[in-house]
Amino acid sequence: MDPAPPLCPSCGQPASTALAGPEHGWECRNEACPEFGQAVRADEPPVGGSPPAGVDEPQAPPAAAPGPSRTGWTAGRVVAVVLGTLVALVGLALLAAGGTALWVDQTQRDDDGFLSTPTERFGAPSYAVATEPIDLVEDEAGGAGWLVEDDVLGDLRLRATGARLFVGVGRAADVDRYLDGVAHHRLVEVDFEPFRPRYEARPGGAPATRPADADVWVASASGAGEQVVTWDPEPGEWTAVVMNADASRGVAADVEVAAEADALTLLAAILLVAGGVLLAAGVVMVVLGARRASRGRRAPPPAGAPAA
């Protein structure tokens, strides 16, 4: 049985045997084909056609199996980003505190350079209103007395307005001796929203002398209308007292407390510099950690492929 004729690779028509027979080859006999009269191999498939019978079609190489997924987020990089974020947040907080301190220092001082509290009403039905002992750093506090130096805290000012008032500041122990046995009220706490002072009543009678005659004050003022006491603080415990100038019962006064706070400018500068440094360091930590993680996600080239 004669073999099946191959197809012409150009026109796809079956080839014809040469005049000498199949054993001498095949040729295209389609006169419309550009390969007319040309030899056709028995194993040559036509363009776009199927291969001759018995000839296997070449197979494409199998696709490479995908490699394991990779991530650039190592434990160290995650820690760097988390720590960088925390450091940056601390830096932002310091910047906010420094900016606030600078705003207060530059815009909230009065004409005399003091930072003051709002004026509020204090009063009691007894003979005096006295603060609890105010601790301005004990002498034995390990060298912390610099906190009350002139270039740190500066002067303190107590301003009181009333009918006829006495305002005085003295060492707590000396004031306690003067008020011993005198009916008075101790200011133990102040709520600011809304403003409400809280007192503790101390029983007793009238004072033996008018307050201005008592030799217990380091700074004092007495008279009608507004009374102002400016005091250069020193380490120790101190008590401020408001009384009627004639030592009568029933005290009422509008009181304002102020301080120079000369170190506020320096404090604001320190907070701003520290905040800026921490913010920059935190941002660098986050950027470097994220960038290295992004680079670590790039898969290596397949085996045998040239490196990019």
What does this structure look like?
With 308 residues, the chain is of the alpha+beta class. The protein folds into three domains: 1-54, no CATH class; 73-113 and 271-295; 114-259, Jelly Rolls (Sandwich). The chain contains three helices and 13 strands; from the N terminus they run E-E-E-H-E-E-E-E-E-H-E-E-E-E-E-H. The protein has helices at 75-107, 172-179, 264-296, and strands at 16-17, 26-27, 39-40, 115-116, 120-124, 128-131, 134-135, 156-171, 184-192, 195-202, 219-231, 237-244, 251-259. The strands form two sheets. Strands 4, 5, 6, 7, 8, 9, 10, 11, 12 and 13 form a ten-stranded mixed beta sheet that branches. It has a three-stranded antiparallel beta sheet with strand order 1-2-3, with no helix packed on it. A hairpin with an 8-residue loop joins strand 1 and strand 2. Helix 1 packs antiparallel against helix 3. The protein is rod-shaped, with a radius of gyration of 49 Å. The two termini are 59 Å apart.
Q: What's this entry about, in short?
A:
The chain has 308 residues and is an alpha+beta fold. It has 3 helices and 13 strands.
The level-1 CATH class of the largest domain: Mainly Beta
Number of helices: 3
Distance between the termini: 59 Å
Average predicted local confidence, pLDDT: 80
| Main sheet properties | 10 strands, mixed
Number of domains: 3
Order of helices and strands: EEEHEEEEEHEEEEEH
Beta-strand level of the residues, as a percent range? 25-35%
Specify the helix fraction band.
10-25%
Please name the CATH architecture of the largest domain.
Answer: Sandwich
What structural class do the secondary elements suggest? alpha+beta
Anisotropy-based shape: rod-shaped
